[in-house]
Amino acid sequence: MASSSSSSVPVVIYEEEEEELVMDDGSGSGWVEPRTSCDHLASLSSDLAHIPHPATPCSKCQHPMENWLCLSCKQVFCSRFVNKHMVDHHEQTPNHSVALSFSDLSVWCFVCDAYLDAQAIPTLRTVHQTAYLLKFGEDPPQLPSNDQCLQLGNE
Ligand SMILES: [Zn+2]
Ligand SMILES: [Zn+2]
Ligand SMILES: [Zn+2]
């Protein structure tokens, strides 16, 4: 006599957890990390050691402050909150896509549509440092380094 027991076997459903290999693109958070790379640096000026002073007015409308420096042709244009001449400049010359803000010395790439980390990109570090020096009259604060040579006088 086969008594078919109606014992219910618990069914375990394994939810396959896919490992998240995708980098967080910052779309759920309000804060967007500046990019540490940019493919649009080829058109940058080869001489970013010499740039206009941060107090240079917009070359189109003479707006006096918080302008942007095009890092390709080193012309100065006002922000999108004024007469958006920097935006116009990029639209007219699309390969001029990287600009430095004289307001807070951040670097923006119009093609990446993102801020760039000037400290992480050697090409930008130089011009950021130069702009900082022009704006504040001193070098930017350096990250503490362990390889500082302390010259101690041994008697
Ligand atoms: Zn870019
Ligand atoms: Zn302007
Ligand atoms: Zn330009």
From TrEMBL:
Q: Which parts of the sequence belong to the UBP-type domain?
A: 36-138
Instruction: List the SUPFAM superfamilies hit by this protein, alphabetically.
Output: RING/U-box
Print the keywords alphabetically.
Answer: Metal-binding, Zinc, Zinc-finger
Q: Which residues cross the membrane?
A: none
Q: Record's SMART domains?
A: ZnF_UBP
Instruction: Report the GO molecular function annotations.
Output: zinc ion binding
Q: Which Gene3D superfamilies match?
A: Zinc/RING finger domain, C3HC4 (zinc finger) (3.30.40.10)
The answer on whether this UniProt entry bears the keyword Metal-binding reads yes
Q: Per its UniProt record, what InterPro entries does this chain match? A: Znf_RING/FYVE/PHD, Znf_UBP
Q: Which domain of life is it from?
A: Eukaryota
Please report the name of this protein according to its UniProt entry.
UBP-type domain-containing protein
